[in-house]
Amino acid sequence: MGLSFPLIILIVRFVVSLMMFYLILSASSSGVQPLCHDDERFALLQFKESFIINQSASEKPSAYPKVSSWKLDQISDCCKWDGVECNKDTGHVIGLDLSSSCLKGFLNSNNSLFRLAHLQNLNLAASVFSGQIPTEILELSKLVSLDLSYNPLLKLQESGLTGIAQNLTNLKVLYLDHVDISSNIPNILANLSSLTNLSLSKCDLHGEFPVGIFHLPNLQLLYIGFNKYLTGCIPEFNRTSPLESLELAHTNFYGELPDSIGNLKSLVELSMRSCNFSGEIPSSLGNLTNLIDLDLQSNSLHGSIPQSISRLVNLETLRLDNNYFRVEFELFLRLRKLVELQLSGNNISFITNPSTNSTFAKFRILLLAQCDLGEFPEFLRNQDRLELLDLSGNKIHGQVPKWMGNVSIETLWGLALVGNLLTGFDQLLVVLPYLNLKHLMLDSNMLQGSVPIPPPSIAFYSVSNNRLAGEIPHLICNLSLITELDLSSNNLSGNLPQCLGNLSASLTKLDLHNNSFHGTIPRICGEANELMMIDFSENHLQGRVPRSLADCTKLEAVNLGNNQIHDIFPSWLGILPELRILILRSNELYGTIESSDSNFDFPKLHVIDVSNNDLSGKLPSEHFQNWKAMQIVDVESLKYMEEYQTLVTHSGNTMSFTNTYSMIIINKGTETLYEKVNGFLVVIDLSNNRFEGEIPDVVGNLKGLNLLNLSSNFLTGPIPFILANLTWLEALDLSQNKLSGAIPLQLTELTFLSYFNVSHNRLKGPIPSGKQFDTFDNSSFSENPELCGNPLSKKCGNLEDSVPPSSRHNLEFSFEFGWKVVAIGYGCGFLFGAVFGQIVITKKYGWFMKTFVVGQPNRRRVNWRGRRN
Ligand SMILES: *[C@@H]1O[C@H](CO)[C@@H](O)[C@H](O)[C@H]1NC(C)=O
Ligand SMILES: *[C@@H]1O[C@H](CO)[C@@H](O)[C@H](O)[C@H]1NC(C)=O
Ligand SMILES: *[C@@H]1O[C@H](CO)[C@@H](O)[C@H](O)[C@H]1NC(C)=O
Ligand SMILES: *[C@@H]1O[C@H](CO)[C@@H](O)[C@H](O)[C@H]1NC(C)=O
Ligand SMILES: *[C@@H]1O[C@H](CO)[C@@H](O)[C@H](O)[C@H]1NC(C)=O
Ligand SMILES: *[C@@H]1O[C@H](CO)[C@@H](O)[C@H](O)[C@H]1NC(C)=O
Ligand SMILES: *[C@@H]1O[C@H](CO)[C@@H](O)[C@H](O)[C@H]1NC(C)=O
Ligand SMILES: *[C@@H]1O[C@H](CO)[C@@H](O)[C@H](O)[C@H]1NC(C)=O
Ligand SMILES: *[C@@H]1O[C@H](CO)[C@@H](O)[C@H](O)[C@H]1NC(C)=O
Ligand SMILES: *[C@@H]1O[C@H](CO)[C@@H](O)[C@H](O)[C@H]1NC(C)=O
Ligand SMILES: *[C@@H]1O[C@H](CO)[C@@H](O)[C@H](O)[C@H]1NC(C)=O
């Protein structure tokens, strides 16, 4: 059944290495095997000593340090050591397989490894070797197989591939995936006429791929995917080609697929996903009857799928999504082995209604999103093995038909019906019938009535952006395995059920924003809790910020904005070690912000928005001092919050499940969705309160700040020139206060500043000019009676008119940032087949897609994004 792509890769590799092994074994005659040579034993031990063993160096679960069994004593026969292979006649070490052996360290040119002159088979894959691959490796001239793949810190200098081609002429197998090569592929590599397997995925290769390599007479496996800048066309092939596996995914290969591709009669897998191919599929493709996996996803191919494709009877996986095909669906139904079919984003027609034929293909994975279906296709009635079904964005209207409640009830684990026009389920079901459903996405439909209840197996459930009404049914609390629940943007009302707190043992995300809930917020976290994000914003919730939040020790984001929370500022939330985003805007917070205790110092806070409340007193200097995460500019943390990944294994396929946070930020009235909130975004919004006193100098410590809004308070005193330290500041709003003095000249050094507003204050003197300041208009400065100079019409006196102009700053880097965090959302997605880092990702359901896809006809590529780009 349906081997996934990476599995095939592994198997192909396994078979190859098995063959090598066999060759080596059979080459030896019977009789007593000589002991290994002293010099080689010594070299091996030296090799062992030159690296450290680090369990985390190899990711594979089966990884273990093979060298730890290598013994120092004199009589130990190194031929019997784990990973070592000797020639049975000569006793020379001819094979060294230390793949996934948890080794870490530099591979120096004087490494004893290079003294093993008889080596034929060297495998150092999947560890953390680093440094340039020394040219000494070229002295191992007997190498038949060389595998250094998955050592991302290893580099091969530009001449490296040339050296290999010139010196290691016996090579049959060369694997350098994930090694940093960063160069063109030299033509001379096509001289390695013995090559059977060549794998160079994700090596940062660029330039034109040498066409001669395609024609290597023995080449069976060629992987050059995930080299974004590698380009080329598919050449003409003749019938002598032994190619079995060809992967070009995520490269810049382009042009049409030639008819002669039909000559690759040995081809088993062909992946050209996410390239730049155009034209039609040649009907000769139907000659490739050995094909098991065909992946043409995300290109610019068009036209009809040729009828000949129905001859590909061995096909198990077919991915044609995100092209411009016209698809007669019937073609695929006859491919009886086909278990995974992805056609999303094409135009599908059903010529006949094939619902009655039980001999048709039974799919496990069927992705038909955005195919203009208009209704649930009838053939689904016969599908009793579906695991994942995506019918999103198909303008399907009305009710989900009764018979859908019979489809694959035992096997279905993921169902996406996002972005249709569905109004409900045509049955009086209390609970949906799918026994093993884990992921259910019903967002952006027109669902009415009360919240549909998924079965108890559910892990992820989102039904945002519908018209659901009434209270949250208590049955929701029976979902003891649920990790993410999104009921946002509906018309739900009533109190939040007390039992919600019981779910926090499993829930990581709870999104109820934009409904009409009222009453107080129930106790959230109990003993065990996993909650990372809650969003209750835009409701009518009252009472205090629930003290139980302090028990939610994994919380990263809290949004209670736009409610009627009546409380003092919850300094005690500072105890949460992971809290990054705190939004309490537009509530009824009152009183002064108390100076904080050192135990409550918000160690990771990046975004705080308490605007539009009734807070008073001085600005919270002690807090500013404690907010350490805002004080560093940590480029590394860019990755932060970007993706949470959980690997889930389901029926032999490894799926990874990814989440991204997103925020909506208003920029001058335009909402902008920031899909990934990274550690880089640092926001303080204390605007529209009743803060008084001066702006403390400690604000200048918050070096990571991107957005600072103190507008509409009663702040007095000068604008501290130390704000010029905030080099990443993109927006500074100090308008509507009682600030006095001059605008510090130093602020012109803020090269990313794209928004600046000091209007409605008591500032005086000349407005600085130059750089960003030349881009602000007069409304940024208005209503300061004593301010003068450009862009105001009031001219300064001679003495005042002394601010030096400086060169205009180049705005290149200043991506336009808006303001006002109004909502935090999150997304989630399925990704397929990331087995041991092998790179086969098909698609992702993003939050963006979930909410904005409706009515957007041209959505290709924007919404479906692979993981690696
Ligand atoms: C590579 O092969 C080409 C043509 O087969 C030949 O002309 C050239 O000399 C070879 N290069 C080396 C370095 O062997
Ligand atoms: C097929 O291609 C190989 C390699 O390019 C070449 O050596 C051979 O002569 C070609 N055969 C025919 C029949 O064209
Ligand atoms: C795609 O290929 C066409 C030629 O077929 C080329 O003009 C275009 O620039 C390529 N697009 C990209 C993004 O490389
Ligand atoms: C290959 O496909 C082409 C076009 O479909 C066809 O004309 C040709 O006969 C096929 N060759 C073989 C050997 O099947
Ligand atoms: C069902 O499909 C098979 C294979 O395509 C075909 O041979 C058979 O005639 C079909 N049966 C019916 C009842 O349509
Ligand atoms: C569901 O399946 C059962 C058994 O196969 C059948 O009796 C029933 O009629 C089906 N219901 C619908 C609505 O198709
Ligand atoms: C919900 O859970 C309660 C207690 O665990 C149980 O009694 C009840 O039957 C469950 N309801 C459903 C519909 O599963
Ligand atoms: C939301 O529900 C209220 C009653 O709870 C109703 O008056 C209102 O019309 C509903 N709004 C929408 C958009 O359905
Ligand atoms: C929630 O948990 C508490 C304590 O564990 C328990 O008493 C209560 O019955 C639970 N509520 C629900 C609705 O399961
Ligand atoms: C600056 O703030 C004032 C008052 O808050 C507002 O009227 C004006 O439009 C703002 N200027 C800009 C450029 O946004
Ligand atoms: C700063 O906050 C005030 C009050 O909340 C708001 O009106 C203003 O738009 C904000 N500044 C910007 C640039 O959005």
End-to-end distance, in Å? Answer: 30 Å
Quote the average pLDDT: 80
Biggest sheet record: 27 strands, mixed
Note poorly predicted spans.
1-31, 636-679, 800-869
Number of helices: 8
CATH fold description of the domain at 565-803: Leucine-rich repeat, LRR (right-handed beta-alpha superhelix)
List ligands, each type once: 2-acetamido-2-deoxy-beta-D-glucopyranose
Q: Share of helix among residues? A: under 10%
Shape label: globular
Number of strands: 56
Q: Which CATH top level class of the domain at 565-803 fits?
A: Alpha Beta
Radius of gyration: 32 Å
Backbone structural class: mainly beta
Any idea what the CATH architecture of the domain at 565-803 is? Alpha-Beta Horseshoe
So, the CATH homologous superfamily of the domain at 565-803?
Ribonuclease Inhibitor
What amount of the residues lies in strands? 25-35%
What structural keywords apply?
869 residues, mainly beta, Leucine-rich repeat, LRR (right-handed beta-alpha superhelix), 7-stranded parallel beta sheet, 8 helices, 8% helix, binds 2-acetamido-2-deoxy-beta-D-glucopyranose, transmembrane helix, signal, LRR_N_plant-typ
